[in-house]
């Protein structure tokens, strides 16, 4: 095929007879070229332990060979760039030396942590050889009985060698050999005039001498090319690390579920494990504690980072590699802990996908009103006199009318008494006999949470309810329990509304769009109650006055109005009498009505200098919850920009104010109104004579000015007889109906943020009692920040927000706390170490991949007590000495020998690195070799 | 297209020219005698920044005191606020403090982008440019002076704030980041604007 062909001649080639191997080579070559494996290496040394921390980039390609899918993966460590200065050092080096040689000889990443993190994407090969880049070929389907025989993997290995040489790849290429028990790989890496062969073997029962350094050294010496032993007298460098297992630590933090009085089966006392209780400053309606399986496994790892082969002795009879002689020691804590809090929150997340309606759980008519009654005329219910009198009279003690519907048991898993206990927690005022947790009134006046999580005030009704629902879902009857509680909650709200009682545990004022929607809805309900109480007390007083007036025949309405309170008392038109067709009855007489106060001290009407200008009583602004605002905004957007309809929507309040003004100032003119309403448009003009005049601004007097038009329409009507801009009854029933008709997933959406918020607050509380806030402050802050972001991003997107990451972080934080508790006990706190010491070392554990130095002879020599491990070593060492051989779980030997990198007169003679790693676990032995041979004379 | 919508609020005292700015920008018209805004109004325009079209909804608010209780309900989800004052009337600049406080307490976006606009530079100046700049700097806002009547720098107002919004981390994620970038903290930006608006 490779014949020379003259361009002018007829050109043909025939690839149809190519073997599978040739085709595979061509395919592989193409992939390698695409991945740029021949790019010059920007070789820089590893930093200590960098390989175990960095992230990896993996590229994958599929090849179809021999009727089997072969996946080719390219693994690359993502290392951060270091200042150039460090590179230059390397440049004087031998041209033949590639990053692979650097990696094999690097002492910085010899031993990784003894524990594999599941999250870590560090590949076994990188771990064994310390590689930053490598290519791996393996069958796509692990079960496809393929790559088992020598011929099979030699097919790929030879292809790899040929292709690597062809494209000038310096990246090692590995083939994975199928074996059910061991990770077997074989690989090859090319470099100028050098070839490194990688071989991994595993033995279930290794010869005894091969389990110690002396035997391994002999093995190593046999393997390296001859020219090493002759030309270089360099001794091999040996690194050793031994791993001991300590007893697994179990601390029992038993399950606690609020309001669950049944003895939980999981809380059975476990012998030999003492349980501690988590303390809290406050009560949170969320569970806590850890599952009984929670434990922390502990390993002590001693390391001899770099020794010359002649220095240490290690054989079956005698070994220098014992803890007391080690220069470096570390403890690793591997924690497996799941908390009931995290589990409960994770469970709750599943509700997001449940679209069953509330009615399907608790049955129709659970709220106590028939569905028809609500639409026909809810006012009939409200104007019922008996209720009305009770409402006003019985405010101090909550004697409520017992209606059959309210006591009717709600279907669900919780018993009547269980449910009423929960309700007592939510509505302490309603159940004074069983309320344990009254609302802290002060907290609702505090300034709003600066983190501005779109939630509600901590420990408010919204937070309590959200947590209870979550707890119910996990522990007190799952979805049915949750539905039962929600139904009971809405029924309670209806009861409060029917009796004009405010909902407790909610911030006052207008619906605050910075809080969650559920909180806004309840605020709205409270505003409705407030307006209704106001309205009814006024009309009641009016009735009494009417009676009085009838007796005395004395008409002094004006004075009465004038001395009314300033807080915007609201006179409602009599709904029952006026009917809906003509709610407005214009006052034709000039008798002023609905005055609030004078404007200024001496402002008089323009046309009637005798009369003062009065500010009328006006209707209060209309409160709206964010979903209503959203509807409004959408309506405006739909109407289109600048449309007259938008203005019309806005004009209702202007019209109301103008009518009230006309009623209060019967002889007032538009100019008077503008003086009060938009003083900027009452302009001061100086004429030629220097006299000052006032006139309406040009924009107010232009043809077709909306204000003028509305003024024309406006009739003098005091607010008492105006149509209400805000119909409290209607709005309240809307809120109640809204809450009663939520589906399960909607209930979840309404409550998840306050639940998560409270969960974080609960953790903060636990941490502060345990005096570890400072340890976890960054994580907590991160959680709060994330929640803040999540809480705002969901307000109107249809798809629900994904809380998975937040929940993962939360359970990780809980895991860490358990780890801390174990470490605290291990450190012998409080008898043998101080809290500060424990925390200091735990910080290292947090930062350093669950490990903490317990011994560092270098630092100890320099007098650094904490850095050298301090008392922890003294506590642990005696434990180890007792049964050292039993606790030893693995020994790791790495033997390295590097060729002379300096070029001598004879030219290139770099021999490349020789590498052998032996991992001894009991009788098992794994040998991982990388031996380099010169290809110059091959 | 829909997700590239930006809601901007235009607030400030009555008669400073909020509606005129919007009208000039959207319709390129100026009308001395247009209607006095009642409550809220809004106009929209598609703006192109770095080759991407954004649908900008401009929510015009009434400046009159009486409407103040009505307007905050429309502050929700605004990504930017244009605070307008009248350079012929110092009081309108002073009052911006109150508007800003209002914005702060009603906006649900803690990272709302703010631009301070001194309007009516075609008329006799009463408020020194430096005063407006100081105010803007104090509140980490952008600053620009304009004339809606003479169409000076009006489009820059909208360009500046939209660019600020789309360049912020917040917009990229479609989420609000409490630790996101500080808006308008770049002082050289302010100087640049100030120099362009001399007339």
From TrEMBL, chain A:
It comes from the Eukaryota. GO terms for cellular component: cytoplasm. The keyword Transport does not apply. Its main location: cytoplasm. It comes from Drosophila willistoni. One of its GO terms (biological process) is macroautophagy. Residues 538-551 have a biased composition (Basic and acidic residues). It is found in: Cytoplasm. One of its GO terms (molecular function) is GTPase activator activity. Residues 552-575 have a biased composition (Acidic residues). The gene is Dwil\GK14940. The keyword Cytoplasm applies. Residues 538-585 are annotated as: Disordered. Belongs to the Rab3-GAP catalytic subunit family. This is Rab3 GTPase-activating protein catalytic subunit. Keywords: Cytoplasm, GTPase activation. Residues 591-740 form the Rab3GAP catalytic subunit conserved domain.
From TrEMBL, chain B:
InterPro entries: P-loop_NTPase, Rab, Sigma_54_int_dom_ATP-bd_1, Small_GTP-bd, Small_GTPase. The keyword Nucleotide-binding applies. PROSITE patterns: RAB, RAS, RHO, SIGMA54_INTERACT_1. It holds the Pfam family Ras. GO terms for biological process: protein transport. Keywords: GTP-binding, Nucleotide-binding, Protein transport, Transport. It comes from the Eukaryota. GO terms for molecular function: GTP binding; GTPase activity. SUPFAM superfamilies: P-loop containing nucleoside triphosphate hydrolases. NCBIfam families: small_GTP. This is Ras-related protein Rab-18.
